[in-house]
Amino acid sequence: MEIGAHKVAMNAPSGVSELERLIEAGTFDPAAIVASIGKTEGNGGANDFTRGFATLSYQLLLARFLECSPEEVGRRIAFVWSGGCEGVLSPHATIFTRKPSSAGGLPGGRLALAIEVTRDIRPEEAGTMAQVEEVAAAVKRCLAATGITDPADVHYVQVKGPLLTPASIADADKRGKTLVTRDPNGSKPYARGATALGVALGLGEVEVADLSDAIIAKRFDLFSPVASTSAGGELKNCEVLLFGNSASASGAFRIGHAVLADAIDADGVRAALRDADLPFDCNPTRDDADRIAAIFAKAEASPTGAIRGRRNTMLSDADINYERHARAALGAVIASVTGDPAIFVSGGTEHQCAPSEAPIAAVVRV
Amino acid sequence: MEIGAHKVAMNAPSGVSELERLIEAGTFDPAAIVASIGKTEGNGGANDFTRGFATLSYQLLLARFLECSPEEVGRRIAFVWSGGCEGVLSPHATIFTRKPSSAGGLPGGRLALAIEVTRDIRPEEAGTMAQVEEVAAAVKRCLAATGITDPADVHYVQVKGPLLTPASIADADKRGKTLVTRDPNGSKPYARGATALGVALGLGEVEVADLSDAIIAKRFDLFSPVASTSAGGELKNCEVLLFGNSASASGAFRIGHAVLADAIDADGVRAALRDADLPFDCNPTRDDADRIAAIFAKAEASPTGAIRGRRNTMLSDADINYERHARAALGAVIASVTGDPAIFVSGGTEHQCAPSEAPIAAVVRV
Amino acid sequence: MEIGAHKVAMNAPSGVSELERLIEAGTFDPAAIVASIGKTEGNGGANDFTRGFATLSYQLLLARFLECSPEEVGRRIAFVWSGGCEGVLSPHATIFTRKPSSAGGLPGGRLALAIEVTRDIRPEEAGTMAQVEEVAAAVKRCLAATGITDPADVHYVQVKGPLLTPASIADADKRGKTLVTRDPNGSKPYARGATALGVALGLGEVEVADLSDAIIAKRFDLFSPVASTSAGGELKNCEVLLFGNSASASGAFRIGHAVLADAIDADGVRAALRDADLPFDCNPTRDDADRIAAIFAKAEASPTGAIRGRRNTMLSDADINYERHARAALGAVIASVTGDPAIFVSGGTEHQCAPSEAPIAAVVRV
Amino acid sequence: MEIGAHKVAMNAPSGVSELERLIEAGTFDPAAIVASIGKTEGNGGANDFTRGFATLSYQLLLARFLECSPEEVGRRIAFVWSGGCEGVLSPHATIFTRKPSSAGGLPGGRLALAIEVTRDIRPEEAGTMAQVEEVAAAVKRCLAATGITDPADVHYVQVKGPLLTPASIADADKRGKTLVTRDPNGSKPYARGATALGVALGLGEVEVADLSDAIIAKRFDLFSPVASTSAGGELKNCEVLLFGNSASASGAFRIGHAVLADAIDADGVRAALRDADLPFDCNPTRDDADRIAAIFAKAEASPTGAIRGRRNTMLSDADINYERHARAALGAVIASVTGDPAIFVSGGTEHQCAPSEAPIAAVVRV
């Protein structure tokens, strides 16, 4: 396969004009679009509607080009949005295209992307081993689809899954089923945690023997360093986007990743760039930076309430949610290295790296 | 003179225990304290009372050690607080001590600090040339007190001055005086701008001929790159803290400064450290960082609403004030270079550097 | 004419299911819809995108029923949204239908509604007499369309108009035109004020001789007690919705209004209901309340910072905008009288009632 | 005993000038002050430092008048603050004085107030029956102290108790003790719930047989309709303030209470006033209102997310905490009935009234 990556700025959650221009200029075939991953300028919380507004706006635009219904666009293309452009973070989307290609066999491989969905996850399965196993199976299907044989070649796995909602809780009650929690917001850690463990299991990073319902969102020494998961009330099944370098892929991009020790770990940012085969001394030059196509990272407040021994106020602030503090900080640190504030930084790291650490991946033009 | 700098963490706006420990351990003589510059964990806005709470708490502690009234402590020691610990920023205070010393003549000089106050500024003078000239005179007195003859040896001038309040506006009305504005919050740019121009005039960075009431908070090509000013309703006069390197100073510290091109300018942070004679390749090592005693910087949202060509949402966000976005971003970038989140980052840069640029100063142990 | 009013709850800014149900149940003819006035659950600020999301969602739904494009729906139907459901305020829309009718001549008349638009207002005209006069002319066209001869029969005039945006400011600069202000947010009072004075002039509540560019957003003793105006960056022209009681109207509704002395003026709420011919002692019973079809009110923080001699913190709060405090308070007071939290309360009262007062209108089933 | 109640406005959390004036004017003897209950203008969350600032400021003022240390003032006088002046709520304190008096036997009795503290509550006891029983015993001591024999004469019991903090959790871990939760903020419902059940047990409103660790913050059909409890990290023991009408009390005040069905229950407000023997038709006149000395109420977001069948956004709002929405709404509704925005409205009603209901008490001049 051949993967293309195109970053488009957004002047609002409904701002699709830059993608429209690219398509009208013939930069790429809209029928080749398989996924979009981006940031919208909402608050990132339960009442952040900018994600839904952006999805609807992009579906309407692409329905026009693809001459199909917006719903059909939704079935063909995976839309992943993280709300919250704190600090310097800039609203944007990275559009991924995929074309069949017989080329390949390039040294170190090239960026490959596979997208697989699970069956619908029932409310009583959310945050349980049933969900872990469904995601693990989808991850394995992604490996096969990308032709990646060594899990070490996988650098970023984005999973979107359902969380519990008043409606799904009522449904489970009607059928007399028990749930991991009855608090919709409280179900997020379970939902994000179970899908992250599904990635870890699918990639062989954890042993199934170590897993059980009891350890989900509890035993945080079990994790995947390449998982990035989110949960949303609008979903019924899980959507898995697996990125890696594959010998059977051609194209202009490679991907790498690293682990961020904390929200100010500039060395971690540099390590991710180098892991994607972007060589530089000290810090990237303008020319080096021009080769960076996309950055995907998770930000989290340290559970200790401190970074490098200094207390911060992320967890005690009743005005600004801790995820917003964390995204503002990490987003600025990454941009200070790459020179581009249009990066994907989202929150919530249950079973994604060790506690207080976070994953970062970089897509770089060869 | 010999200047000492002691950074103390604060576990709350009233958290004085670390300073108490240092004094009880005999680390320095409380009678030598002349100033405190720190961050408190409020919102940084008009209803941020953490600054007043911190001042009262420190005055009560020091009144005990100095066996005088809290009011007397207030007269002896300058307290400068910036509210708002966004992102990784850590609540703390840097305590400055000053002792007479006949030593000096060291190559490049050593950190010197002088503190001078102006007469009370009448409401109708706030934001006008009258205030500019009073501050300029205080700056000149500071130069004399530090024995600094070349303004190029001045690296950081912190000024606190009054802003207009409902009470001071009423007083001016009673006396039939006109004001630069009748909006208390709207008077901040004038108050910060006039004191910054006072620094520029006192240091000879601008010509008095170019100055007039009409250009204050208007002609932003006139500025001081070493001024850092704030305005508060509790003040009647202006308090000037001038930091520089003086041949007549001894002690363990030197200061340097640089200009930040934007909120993600890590090179600017490194330049300030090097300007303070901290040499390093690439980025400071842990040992290099251990020599950094204090960082003082200003953060501002770019008036263009964009950084490096990427739009951000600082100015349009109705939930989080733009100054909070800017402090969160710059604070994290600085901490990613120095390794210490306990740094002084405040907002509002009228006539302090060119528009969208901001000043940064570093105090480094020799 | 015969006017219908249908209140629909919204489970999200995109929540159109209740209107869909009403139309599918044949409750009314979607082709008869002329306007929608509602509240969405955003922050009510410059970055509140819930209004645009709601408009797009309703246009898509109605395009399906009316078998036309969403753009065509936008041309046929006026959508007025106020963002910000603080306190108990409930997201909803009141859908107004209009049918021709030869009936009429009923005692006291019946609810009539006319909608007129002005020509596009150029940036340099925003907040000036040019805008005042265009709105006044549209108001007079509305009077003719409703057959209302006595302005005293007009109880509510909602006007949406443009505000200055970075784009429109740039356009004016290109043509060398001067503007009332260069601050987009700062243009809101001028834009809301000029359209409100347009209503006052159109209804003969002020003399044209007293009006000039200089008094707009300045001389607040000139106002209309029935105007409710808003400004949005998405508009180029002004849209006027005039509500009153007309002898030539039939239908089941009457409208009345009153003036709120402050944000806790329950007597003012009761006065508006009685003015719409809803009689009751003390407070409305459940049966009385069932006759209330819609409430439209403006909320504002008192410029004195106090209500009934007690200071409040609306204007000094840096975390929550004063308009949000005011809507939360007034919305709850109105709901405590009517028993229904689904009411329209928006902010900004320049030239709409005297300073610190605010307009309230009630639509009641006969 | 003879109880006095004096409401003082606060121009800031440190604003003690009005109390200073009253004392200097000889309005009452500062040595007679036993309690202060008030609102401060913070955010009401974990990082609201306005409560501590107000306590310190009042202790310093009274230490001057009482010629003792601020710590001694803290031992003599109970300070109860609720942070968060949303909507129209006005920062203030109601100062209660108590003098011995042989008078009494007045019809219906007069306002009596007793204050009792429990022993320190160990972390492992927080939110357990141990805490319930200690509070119940303190309530019984209060009944004896006020000479109230019939619990029906008790109308308001304010309890302040400890919550779990990182420090107290660490202490319990060191001693190998288990806790109801390890989440400091998550311990609030347990802490507030256990102290409320302590009130219910002390007043005989619940049977001890129905109580156990398992039902605390779970079985909400067990409650006291006159309890108002809060939890703070600064406390080690529980402080109980019991208000009722006693035959052995003299003085100018009586107290009454009612239950609020929801945040817009104006009838509930009127019922509380009438229960305190303030008679009026419809709504209180200005003269009636002048007899109201203080209002104490709890505000809570409805667990259903709706009021009177209309959805509100209190629980889903990530920008403004639900307690702030609820206080803004209820505070305005109460003020619309009493005409005075200086009222005590706080959040969190576990085991205080039935779910979604809330207590309200009124102190009225005879």
Automatic annotation (TrEMBL), chains A, B, C, D:
Region annotation RU C: where it falls in the sequence: 253-366
InterPro entries registered for this protein in UniProt: AtzD/Barbiturase, AtzD/Barbiturase_RUA, AtzD/Barbiturase_RUB, AtzD/Barbiturase_RUC
Active site (catalytic residues): 160, 230
Enzyme class: hydrolase
Transmembrane segments: none
Ranges in coiled-coil conformation: none
Keywords: Hydrolase
Binding site for substrate: 51, 82-83, 192, 230-231, 327, 346-347
GO terms assigned for molecular function: hydrolase activity, acting on carbon-nitrogen (but not peptide) bonds, in cyclic amides
RU A: annotated span: 1-102
Record-listed E.C. numbers: 3.5.2.-
Location of the region described as RU B in the Swiss-Prot/TrEMBL record: 110-247
UniProt similarity note: Belongs to the cyclic amide hydrolase (CyAH) family.
Record comment regarding domains: The monomer structure is formed from three repeating units (RUs) that share the same structure as one another. The monomer and the active site possess nearly threefold rotational symmetry, to the extent that the active site possesses three potential Ser-Lys catalytic dyads, but one of the 3 active site surfaces varies in composition suggesting it is involved in confering substrate specificity.
NCBIfam families: amido_AtzD_TrzD
Oligomeric form and interacting partners: Homotetramer.
Summary of the function given for this chain in its UniProt record: Cyclic amide hydrolase of unknown substrate specificity. Catalyzes the hydrolytic ring-opening of a cyclic amide. Does not act on cyanuric acid nor barbituric acid.
HAMAP family, per database record: Cyc_amidohydrol
Name of this protein: Cyclic amide hydrolase
Organism encoding this protein: Lichenifustis flavocetrariae
Species lineage: Bacteria, Pseudomonadati, Pseudomonadota, Alphaproteobacteria, Hyphomicrobiales
